[in-house]
Amino acid sequence: MRKLIALFMLAGILFAPVIANAQDAADTAAQEEPTPVAVEPAASPTIIDDEIVEEELSFHQVVKEKFIEGDPLYMTPVLICLILGLAVALERIITLNLSTTNTKKLLTKVEDALESGGVEAAKDVTKNTKGPVASIFTQGLMRYSEGIEMVEKSIISYGSVEMGRLEKGLVWISLFISLAPMLGFMGTVIGMIGAFDSIEAAGDISPSLVAGGIKIALLTTVAGLIVAIILQLFYNYCVAKIDSLVNDMEDASITLVDILVKHKLTGK
């Protein structure tokens, strides 16, 4: 224990001058520090605050700023294409999802109704069910007395009608997909024309003269491409959904005909 205390005392004696010299050097540096150096910390937080303010800009504010920089005269038509295209796409998505039917469950109900109450009971089941598949079943059951061939023809004919209803509105989405980049490129051309007009009027090529026109050109092009990409995603989803519904209609129609043949109801 005594040895340990002696070691601590020896260490204190050895390092005391070093600590004292370091403290004196720090005090001397603090006293000799020039006045302009004290002003620098005050400027630093201002720069940091400016950077924080720029980073805190919301996505909506950034989009609004770029919209104004791209000139509302050229950006507004592109924005209208986006709004109208999204409106049509959302309407189609809602309609297609509501048109989706559990075909297996519907076929089971129709078969049970045929066994228990005949064709009239089966028609009541299909009329009370929403969706294009149920509508096709209703048309086919209404022609059961005319033979199986008439049932098949009725299903095929009415299936084409239902397919046309499902595809309603897709042509408008396709129009806006094509129109948005065209409007963006038109803004690009007009912006470049304005830039060259500025060069011609000034008689000299200066970055400040052409920067405004080139910026408008690039922003309108980007806006048109972004709108086209967004609407293309919705369009492809709608097409895939329609293909799925059409496949369900075809499979369910074939199964319905098999059920009618199985129960021999075409002649009753």
TrEMBL record:
GO annotation, cellular component aspect: plasma membrane
Residue ranges of domain MotA/TolQ/ExbB proton channel in the record: 130-250
Signal peptide: 1-22
Compartment list: Cell membrane; Membrane
Biological process according to GO: protein import
Coiled-coil positions: none
Annotated keywords: Cell membrane, Membrane, Protein transport, Signal, Transmembrane, Transmembrane helix, Transport
Record's bilayer topology term: Multi-pass membrane protein
InterPro entries: ExbB/TolQ_transport (IPR050790), MotA_ExbB_proton_chnl (IPR002898)
Transmembrane feature ranges: 74-94, 170-196, 216-235
Protein family (similarity comment): Belongs to the exbB/tolQ family.
Protein name: Biopolymer transport protein ExbB
Record organism: Algoriphagus yeomjeoni
